[in-house]
Amino acid sequence: MGAMSTEDALASAPAPTALSLYREIARDDWARLAAGMAQPLSETELLQIRGLGDRLDLDEVKHVYLPLSRLLSLYAETTKRLGADTSEFLREPDTTTPFVVGVAGSVAVGKSTIARLLRELMSRWPGTPRVALVTTDGFLYPNEELERRGLMSRKGFPESYDRRALVSFLTDVKSGADEVRAPFYSHMQYDIVPNASITVRRPDVVIVEGLNVLQPPPAPNDVAVSELFDFSVYVDADPAHIAQWYVERFMKLRSGAFANPNSYFNVYAELDDAEAESTALGFWNSINLPNLVENVLPTRHRASLVLQKAADHTVERVLLRKL
Fold it and tell me: Where are the transmembrane segments (predicted)?
């Protein structure tokens, strides 16, 4: 048999393994990281954290979110040490600022519950006892301003937020301000509450949760919100699954929060099952799905870590960006 040509050798060689920016960690491998970690939450505490429609149990907390909280705490502690070492090198007082974590993802994917859970879990680790949580809902323009701009039907899209105010807030946090205030948003009123605010007083960690926190800057010279994060988490799932979760949540809200006479959504409380499902799907297909496809999902690759959820809300895979 004649010698194999270079072309033949290349054709028969196995394809090289594709490189990735991320470590891909299967659920079972990630869950093993929880070995030796005590479950810090009770069932009662979990009930207070869990959002409507989220199927989150203590096993999921221990096997997925407890290791994640420890990883984030380690990142925060390491960043704090680096800040102190830098100050020592420059022969100046320690000016270390809060470690900022962004949590992004679609409406109804469970990111609010995850943000609340991480706040609780991270505060249990010795290096990060003080954790603040801020949602970007507070940086939506008031309804009056959205009406003026013709944006009420696009509430949640990037243009409906006061991005400059959010960047200014985070700049103050990362600059070491002793006290920073964020506007307060009422889901009951579906609007910003005048003269109400959330005060952040230089904690160890600030978690910022919202749809569009990983958006690139609108112009080359603008600062992206994500540039002010030390770490970011994207909560990912199949859009078909998220749609189902959205409808299920709407149906539960119909007999819950929507039934409150003071609720902005009280008009939907009397819908029958078919009308409620049709209304929810209408909102999903006309507003939330386009926003997900056009604005939210394209930012997934900007995250430090991606949690990929299965149809039952459990995390089936973790993608962690390599250092």
Answer: none
Q: Is 237 annotated as a binding residue?
A: no
Angle in degrees, CA 291, 294, 297, rounded to 5: 85
Confidence of residue 16 (pLDDT cuts 50, 70, 90): very low
Give dist(CA 50, CA 64) in Å, integer: 15
106 is in an annotated binding site: yes
Structure tokens belonging to residue 312: 């039952």
Dihedral of CA atoms 281, 297, 101, 54 in degrees, nearest 10, equals: 30
Query: Is 282 annotated as ligand-binding?
Result: no
174 carries a ligand binding annotation: no
Rounded CA-CA distance 20/224 in Å is: 24
Full-model pTM: 0.92
At residue 53 the predicted structure's pLDDT band, cuts being 50, 70 and 90, is low
Residues 6+ apart with CB under 8 A from 200: 98, 132, 134, 173, 179, 180, 181, 182, 206
Q: What is the pLDDT of residue 18?
A: 62
Residue 233, marked binder = no
Q: Give the C-alpha separation, 189 to 265, whole Å.
A: 9
Cross-strand pairs, 317 = 26, 308
Residue 107 pLDDT class (50, 70, 90 cuts): very high
At residue 54, the pLDDT reads 77
